[in-house]
Fold this sequence. Notes:
By secondary structure, the protein is α+β, with helices and mostly antiparallel strands. It has helices spanning about 1-55, 90-100, 105-120, 140-150, 155-160, 165-174; strands spanning about 65-70, 75-80, 125-130, 135-140.
Amino acid sequence: MKKTILILLMLMICIMITSCNSDTELLKTSEKEIATTNLTEATSQNDKTELKDYLELIDGSTFIHEYKINNDSVSILYSVKSIESKENLTKKDFDDYFLTGDKIDKILVSVPLRLFNNYSYLKTIEIKIEADKNYNINLNKDDVIKLIGEINKENIDKYTYDKNLRKEFLNNFE
């Protein structure tokens, strides 16, 4: 009888030790998952902050009325409404900027290409310009790559500044 009690006691001690080790491993795993999640969230927040800063510098940024950043997508609206909060700008400034030359077409091509190039995690970009009429382009990165090949400075410049390539690009995504 004493042997049985002793064996049972030893078995219970083994089970308790194993259980404690298992809990410790679960705790370590949970801590790793939390750390990974926090790192991902911090990276995501840093990416968004960096992207917001970049949007302040892109072509026509003065006339950006609003933008939205959602995980892997960006939406930008250029509008005359953007001048409402700026004392030194007029509708004439807006019209002079957008309605001179091929500025609208250049923005619809260059801005998303530069964003895709600089922020590899972006998958979709939408640009809207409310000028003499509404202009809109909604791009999926994979579709852009199919058309132009690699998104790099050389291809960005080619499609931005060569009028024929710019028209080809816009015709493919209208």
